[in-house]
Each structure stands twice: as C-alpha cells, then as structure tokens.
Amino acid sequence: MLNSIRTITPPDDYILTASENIIFDEVIAELPKGEWTAHMIRLAADLARMIADARGEADAIRREGSTVTGAGGGPIRNPRCAQHASLQASINATRRSLAIHSRAKGGTDTQALSRRREIQRANEANAIFDDDDEGLLARPPVDTWNRAH
Question: In sequence order, what are the residues at sequence separation of 6 or more whose Cβ sits closer than 8 angstroms to the Cβ of residue 40?
C-alpha cells in the first residue's frame, strides 16, 4: 500500500526534456507502482528518450520524404528511415524487457496477468491506511519512505 503514495521520477543523472517527461509518465502508468524497480525506472527513462527520438525522426521523414536525392543525383532511400526502423526495434525490445507487453511477463495467461495488475492498481488507488480511523496502525512517516526509495 505504501507504493500508492510513491512518486516515480527519472533517475537524478537523467535530464529529460518536457516531452520526454510526458512520455516517461505514460510509460510508468502502464504498470502498477509496486512493480517498478530502480533498474526498470532507468530503462523507462531510456525508453522515453527513444520514443521521443523516433518521433523526431518520423517528423523529419515526413518533411523530407522517404526518398532523397543522392550524391549521384538519383533518388535514394532517406537514411533517416533506417535510423527510425532501428529506434522502433529498440523501443519494442525495451518494452519487452520491462514486461509492459502482457505476454512478456505472464506467458500466454494474459487474463490472469491483467486481473492481477487491475487488483494491484485498485489497491494503490485506495488511500493509504484508509481503514485506520483511530490512527492505531503503526506506519513509517511518508516523507521518510519517499527519501529511502
């Protein structure tokens, strides 16, 4: 339940642009907060950068076209197309590594995995220690928890 108040941010040594931060938040939202490890958060930051780079390459390809004039004066494939394809492959591999794709984590039992994640998200959405009206449950201070994790 403490994970419901956990704020997941990119690692301190990663400086993301505003658009990369938006993508990072979208990636983080794909899994319950309790499943994110420090290494997975680092991979999510890398994934956000790759997605932003792929978007930039796709925009450039739209402006320049998929064929450009080569040194010999004839049409050649825009070199950005290969870069974009490489980024897309890296994005897909990273998503599989993070187990954002259901099959990557749960095998063929995607319904069970989906149900488990749904339950975990519902638990995180509930207020922490909601059932402790009298304040009798022992718990660590919230600010101490956030600093330690």
Answer: 98
pLDDT value, residue 102: 55
Looking from the CA of 45 toward its CB, the CA atoms found within 13 Å total 15
Beta bridge partners of 67: 77
Mean pLDDT of the chain: 81
Q: How far apart are CA 9 and CA 149, in angstroms?
A: 11
Do 31 and 100 touch, CB atoms closer than 8 A? yes
b/e per residue, 42-71, with b = 16+ CB within 10 A? ebbbbbbbbbbbbeebeeebeeeeeeeeee
Q: Which residues of 80-115 are buried (b: 16+ CB within 10 A; e: fewer)?
A: bbebbeebeebbeebbeebbbebeebbeeeeeebee
pTM of the model: 0.69
